[in-house]
Amino acid sequence: MELILPSTINILGTEIEILKLLISIAIFAGGVLIARVVRITATRFIVRHLPHPTGIIVQRVVYWVVISIAGISAISNMGVDFTGLLLAGGIFGIIIGFATQSLVANLISGLFLQIDRPMKVGDPIEVVDMNVAGIVVETTTFSTRLRRFDGVYIRIPNEKFFTSQLRNFSTHAARRVEVTVGIAYKEDVSRAIEVIKNLLSHNPKVLAEPEPTISAWELGDSSVNINVWPWVPTQEWFSVRTEIVQRIKEEFDKEGIEIPFPQRTVWLAHASREAKDTFFDAETKFSK
Fold first, then answer.
1. Order of strands, sheet of 153-157, starting from the edge strand that comes earlier in the sequence
2. Phi, psi of 210 (to 5 degrees)
3. Does the pTM of the predicted model rise above 0.70?
4. What is the pLDDT averaged over residues 22-34?
5. Which residue among 9, 98, 162, 237 has its CA within the 20 to 30 Å range from the CA of 216?
């Protein structure tokens, strides 16, 4: 008696060829295997460089996308027509895409931020395009949180953060302090520069290399302006800057070097000649 194997099998009222069923099972099994390999590869080269929640999300998305493609391919091999479903899904996807474009943009920008790494948690930065400065507190999947220097917390979407110009104040170990001080025209510029050099040389937080730059920079309306540019450790920048400004004022007062302030003489348009002469004489006596 000859045994005849059936060429089809009935699944939920649908006749499916056994050969196609076996091929579909093989396609799905291969897809699962590929998904695991891709997940391991993503974990090794990408996910480990991302923060914890973002890395897990990327790992799961990659895995289930490959599984979904394998499942659709396996079902299609058995003769199931996805044309109508794909059309409906395409329209639905367009609607969802418009509704979630900002969400997706923030997610992708967050991934690029983790790859580019323009800053890390704890860095003092300035988002130049948004005129926001503060300390980086956290970078999540969709946003970056800063603590401004006044203590207020602010949340910036990753898309805006990634496309903005960033200024990181802690990238290098040393940072230059920039102070401009004006002295009266009657004062000796060389003497004033020597006083500033002396006080900087006695400050242990001012670096010897690079050497501080002190130079007469411009002739202002009321003063000769001197630029004082010493280099200091980045973490000491703020405290050293305030200390230098205070010490320059104290040393100039001690040495009798005048720091002038703008002065203006105002003439009234309809004032009499006698009133102007009286005012000028009083001003001359006061200045003496």
1. 153-157, 143-148, 132-139, 124-127, 166-168
2. -65, 150
3. no
4. 81
5. 237
